[in-house]
Design a protein that fits this description.
It contains eleven helices and 13 strands.
C-alpha cells in the first residue's frame, strides 16, 4: 500500500475527474507543501485522495482530506459515499487505518465534496467516522448558475445588487487584471483588520497566484475609482466550477460600489473559462430560512459577507461533514478541548 507524494501519478489519476474540486489538485498540494504541510497521494481501484498532514504540537499529527476523496462516479448523487456500506466504505476505512498507523496520525479530518439533500442529513455520519464540529473549509456557500446568458444572470440578481453594479459602471469604476500582489496584500490586511478575519502572509498569496496562474486557473482582478485602487479579488477555475477565494476592499470611495462590478467581472471571466457554476465560498452555517430572517440585524462573522453575496441570486447549499477518523481517542479528546478553548477566546 503506497502513501507517497507522487504529483505526476496523481495528475494522471485526476484527469479522470475533470470537475474535481480544485483543492484536490496537485497545484493546491504544492501550495500547502510550501507552508508546512506534507503531501501524500493514494490511489486504489478507481478512487483516491490527496492527503495533507501537519503537526500541531509535539507528538500530535493530524491529516486532512479537503474536498475528497474522489470516487469512481463524477456525479455527486451517484457517489458511493452517499449509499452507505459497500466496497468503497470498507476500502476507504482500511486505507485510513493503515495510513494513520504508518504515519502516526491521531486523526484524519475528511471534508467531502458532497452536497447534502436536506438539513436532516447533518445528523447522519458515515460508518467508522465521527461527526466533527470543527471545519477547515466553509461548509455552507452560495452557488450561482452562470451557464446561462449574461442577461439571465443579471435578471436573477436582487434589484439592489443589479442597481449597485450599474452604479459602479456609471461612476466610472474600472476593473482590470493585475499581477500586483503587493497592492492586493495591503488590501487584504486592511480588510482583515476592519472585518476581523485572519490574513495569510504575503508569500502565501504570491505562491497561490503564481502556481495557479501557470495553470491558467487563476486571475487577480483589481478595481480602480478615479485612478485609485479600491478593491480586489482572486478568482479560480477548474472544470465547470469557479471559486471566489480571496477578496478585499479599502475604506475610501465605498460609495462607488466597486465590489459589485468586481464580482461581475469575475463571473464573466469564469464564463470565458467554460465554467457553469460560480462558488462564492462561504456564508454563515445556517439554513437559508434562518439566514434570510436574521441577516438584516446580525453583525460580525460572515453575516456581512452574506448580505453582499445573497444579492447575486445564487442558491444556498451545504456540504457534508466535516468527519473525523480517530485513531487515538485520548489525544483526539484533548484536541477537541483545545479547539473549544480557542473558540471561546475569540
Amino acid at each position: 500500500m503506497s502513501f507517497d507524494k507522487d504529483y505526476a501519478r496523481w495528475d494522471v489519476f485526476l484527469s479522470q475527474f475533470p470537475h474535481a474540486h480544485i483543492l484536490q489538485t496537485s497545484t493546491w498540494g504544492k501550495v500547502k507543501e510550501r507552508f508546512g504541510w506534507r503531501v501524500y497521494h493514494f490511489i486504489q481501484e478507481g478512487w483516491g485522495a490527496q492527503i495533507l498532514v501537519r503537526q500541531l504540537f509535539i507528538g500530535f499529527r493530524f491529516a486532512y482530506i479537503p474536498k475528497g476523496p474522489l470516487g469512481v462516479e463524477e456525479s455527486l448523487e451517484q457517489w458511493v459515499w452517499r449509499q452507505g456500506g459497500g466496497s468503497f466504505e470498507c476500502s476507504f476505512l482500511s486505507t485510513l487505518r493503515e495510513f494513520c498507523r504508518r504515519e502516526q496520525i491521531v486523526f484524519v479530518k475528511v471534508e467531502p465534496d458532497v452536497l447534502i439533500d436536506s438539513e436532516d442529513d447533518l445528523r447522519q455520519c458515515p460508518k467508522g467516522l465521527v461527526c466533527s464540529d470543527h471545519a477547515i473549509q466553509p461548509l455552507r456557500t452560495i452557488l450561482i448558475d452562470i451557464g446561462v446568458s449574461e442577461d439571465e444572470i443579471l435578471a436573477r440578481m436582487k434589484q439592489k445588487t443589479r442597481y449597485n453594479l450599474r452604479l459602479a459602471e456609471r461612476k466610472g469604476v474600472r476593473v482590470q487584471p493585475s499581477d500586483d500582489l503587493e497592492l492586493f496584500y495591503q488590501m487584504m490586511v486592511t480588510t482583515g483588520r476592519r472585518d476581523g478575519f485572519q490574513v495569510h502572509a504575503k508569500e502565501y498569496y504570491e505562491t497561490v497566484y503564481s502556481l495557479f496562474r501557470q495553470q491558467g486557473q487563476c486571475e487577480l482582478l483589481l478595481a480602480f475609482y478615479q485612478g485609485e485602487p479600491v478593491a480586489g479579488l482572486m478568482v479560480f477555475a477548474r472544470g465547470k466550477r469557479a471559486f471566489y477565494f480571496y477578496g478585499a476592499s479599502l475604506d475610501r470611495y465605498r460609495e462607488a460600489m466597486a465590489p459589485y462590478l468586481l464580482q461581475w467581472k469575475a463571473i464573466l471571466w469564469a464564463k470565458e473559462k467554460g465554467c457553469s457554476v460560480y462558488d462564492f465560498w462561504g456564508v454563515p452555517d445556517y439554513e437559508e430560512r434562518r439566514l434570510e430572517e436574521e441577516f438584516r440585524h446580525r453583525v460580525g462573522g460572515l453575516w456581512g459577507v452574506y448580505r453582499f453575496k445573497r444579492g447575486f441570486g445564487g442558491r444556498v447549499v451545504r456540504y457534508a461533514g466535516p468527519y473525523d477518523f480517530v485513531t487515538s481517542p485520548l489525544l483526539y479528546g484533548l484536541y477537541r478541548f483545545w479547539m473549544r478553548w480557542k473558540h471561546e477566546r475569540l
